[in-house]
Specification:
435 residues; 18% strand; globular; 2 domains; three-stranded antiparallel beta sheet; alpha+beta
Length: 435
């Protein structure tokens, strides 16, 4: 997105609330998926000349999700012979209707790493807005650099300040509350762990208690952590420029921007555990939906009216209250597509002691230095059921007589090639490659 596009988006958002005032009550049946399905054709007709095939195919999968062309299961009522189809999901990781599987997968893998008696912090690393245009034009390289710079900064700060081996799991977010491009990573980090030489357990540090404030868990100095993150990222960008692998519109302007951001402190936010007694299940319940969510959830939507999508967003001022904002329908779709990740890009990664190569050895060190009595172990399966469960499929009961329905047939989803180029493809697919 160029600067003019960003300015236009900001102006559209700023106009929210002028003229039409949303009721605040959510429009029945309104979902992110329903908005995308309704307005994708018009959006592609307008912007098809600048959309990648990956973005188009993602929108197409979402459009097909849980519709008749994807086939699925048919249930029959043995009492009244009614039949109810349940169509297959697209399973695309960007699909607003299919996130439950990715959430369950993240929770399952992370739950195996967490330990009773250990405090966990959420650390957020954010790239300055001045670099947004550069990052948008080089997403794969610069998102990867964001991960690596955050992990490097954590490892240095934790190693030097705590004398401890760092471990983290990170998830990339590319959005802000108003769907603008705002790349940052959320990291889940243990506050205690094996020492650098692996001979002792390093306990979590605490701030000094005062009359006004009790002692709180403390990880590292966030100002110094931010400077290390900044220096690592800017160095990485300069290396990529020197290697000639970045797409750059104005090299001279970019050098000026890098000098500006190098002179500023970068925002790194360290959030202590949600409560002092938090166990692993508390941590996962608190973070699971947040760390595996998308740019906007259904519950933030208000209504679609007069060609605009109204939704809730934080005000951004000291009150940080939820306020209604809006975007034109096609701008809403365009803003949502900004957050489609490059094909095959991994948005959740693990570093340090939790990395794939070190995880087994690190966990063995933790078990040796801080054994957990069997009676203290958390039953993750029971504790996390509300996080993992999807809403029950009520269609398995007959809508007419409430009798339990029987599975009559199950048809696998056709290949995407068949769907993309077959008779069921939407009309906007015919615009590909034109104009």
């Amino acid at each position: 997105m160029g600067r003019s596009d960003a300015a236009s988006s900001a102006a559209d958002t700023a106009r929210a609330g002028r003229g039409h005032e949303p009721s605040g009550q959510q429009q029945p049946g309104l979902t992110v998926a329903s908005i995308l399905k309704q307005y994708t054709a018009s959006f592609v007709e307008r912007d098809h000349h600048r959309l990648s095939s990956h973005v188009e195919s993602t929108l197409l999968r979402i459009g097909f999700c849980r519709t008749a062309p994807l086939k699925g299961r048919v249930y029959r009522c043995p009492s009244c012979d009614s039949k109810v189809p349940v169509y297959n999901s697209c399973t695309d990781r960007h699909c607003p209707q299919c996130r439950g599987a990715s959430r369950a997968d993240w929770v399952d893998k992370t739950a195996r790493l967490l330990r009773d008696g250990t405090k966990y912090f959420q650390v957020v690393f954010t790239i300055p807005d001045k670099l947004s245009s550069l990052v948008l034009g080089n997403r794969r390289l610069l998102y990867r650099l964001l991960f690596r710079s955050a992990a490097s900064a954590l490892q240095r700060s934790i190693g030097e300040e705590c004398g401890m081996q760092a471990a983290s799991t990170m998830v990339l977010h590319t959005w802000n509350q108003r769907l603008g491009h705002h790349p940052h990573v959320h990291a889940l980090v243990p506050g205690s762990g094996p020492s650098l030489d692996g001979t002792r357990w390093v306990p979590c540090r605490f701030t000094s208690a005062t009359r006004q404030k009790p002692a709180r868990p403390f990880l590292v100095d966030n100002t110094e952590l931010g400077r290390r993150f900044r220096d690592s990222y800017v160095r990485g960008v300069r290396r990529l420029i020197k290697a000639g692998v970045l797409e750059i519109e104005d090299p001279a302007e970019l050098i000026t921007i890098l000098e500006d951001v190098q002179a500023c402190d970068w925002v790194v936010y360290i959030q202590p555990p949600p409560k002092d007694t938090s166990d692993p299940a508390d941590v996962l319940k608190y973070l699971a939906r947040y760390m595996t969510g998308g740019p906007i959830s259904d519950r933030r939507l208000i209504e679609v009216k007069d060609g605009r999508v109204y939704f809730w967003a934080r005000s951004g001022d000291k009150s940080n209250q939820q306020v209604p904002v809006s975007l034109p329908t096609l701008e809403f779709v365009r803003s949502w597509t900004l957050h489609i990740l490059p094909k095959g890009f991994t948005k959740a990664r693990r570093y340090g002691g939790w990395s794939n190569t070190r995880q087994a050895a690190y966990q063995q060190q933790c078990d040796r230095l801080q054994p957990i009595p069997p009676s203290a172990a958390t039953d993750m399966n029971d504790s996390l059921t509300p996080v993992l469960e999807e809403p029950p499929d009520e269609r398995k009961k007959c809508p007419r007589c409430q009798t339990e329905m029987e599975l009559e047939s199950h048809t696998r989803r056709p290949s995407w090639r068949t769907l993309f180029y077959g008779s069921d493809h939407p009309r906007w697919m015919e615009w590909r490659g034109s104009g």
